[in-house]
Design brief:
Blueprint lengths: L1 E8 L4 H12 L3 E12 L1 H16 L3 E4 L6 H10 L8 H11 L8
Parallel strand pairs: 1-2, 2-3
Length: 107
Amino acid sequence: GDVFLAGNLTLARSLAVKEEFERALEGGRAAISFGEVESVDLAFLQVLCAARRTALRDGKEIAVSGETVPAVIAELVKDVGLHQGTGSEDDRFWAALASGERRSDHG
């Protein structure tokens, strides 16, 4: 199923986000897309990590769909270091999140 995430992805919403992932994974695959994300914290990343682990264990998938990952999420993934790994499927997922918004190329 689809999981659309926007607004404040913080501890206050972590239970609701967890339930969204659980519902989406009932169909075997959760496709995450992002709207305007105002803030994000480690609680969100912990929920996402746990959902990924559960999905992989159960032979299901969580993937990022859509063109962009909000910069606030990319920055947090990079700060925590989740994108630096061993080249596994899980690392590719986090690397995609860390790549951030492809639209805003300030280079």
